[in-house]
Design a protein that fits this description.
single chain, mainly beta, five-stranded antiparallel β-sheet, 3 helices, 10 strands, globular
Length: 170
């Protein structure tokens, strides 16, 4: 049996996705309910910046909400790279507790650079969500279950540069 190369038919879902251009007014909205989902959310949030004042912990509602400026990596990957950021809401539900490391809640104007979001399932379906920031800062959320939403809030704006990281050669 001969296997022929796959071709994407015009009008198929994949070709529609490849032609999709999430321009300035095409917002991204993602829901994360498991580790695979949160990995995708984490990818879209890599190098997002957030002021400490824009991190809101609502213990009575068991909710953490953050307003971040995420770097639009998809816009960066085109042939004529244009560096863009978007205002994005990040929301976690069913949060039992919040702990922080190297984050001073009194320094409201301090800016944190988000590197990754991870979920460690410890007592299924519950576990810990860790938001890892540069400089050793982190937020750790103990959750009943993973329930996260990422939603772009408006158009993009130009960013001065593409984020870059120093690689430790040790």
């Amino acid at each position: 049996m001969e296997i022929s190369p796959c071709a994407v038919a015009p009008g198929s879902l994949l070709s529609s996705y490849q032609q999709l251009s999430r321009g300035p007014m095409n917002p991204l909205k993602l829901i994360a309910l498991d580790q695979d989902d949160i990995a995708i959310v984490s990818t879209h949030l890599q190098d997002a910046v957030v002021k400490v004042a824009d991190i809101v912990w609502l213990p009575a509602e068991k909710r953490l909400v953050m307003g971040v400026n995420r770097f639009d990596w998809e816009a960066c990957g085109c042939e004529d790279p244009c560096y863009k950021r978007r205002r994005t809401a990040l929301r976690f539900e069913r949060v039992n507790s919040l702990r922080c490391r190297n984050v001073d809640p009194k320094r409201k104007d301090a800016v944190l650079n988000l590197l990754a979001v991870e979920f460690d399932e410890t007592d299924s379906p519950g576990g810990a969500v860790t938001l890892i920031f540069s400089g050793g800062a982190a937020l750790r959320l103990e959750v009943e279950c993973l329930e996260c939403e990422l939603a772009d809030l408006g158009p993009t704006w130009d960013a001065k540069a593409r984020p870059a990281h120093m690689v430790d050669q040790a």
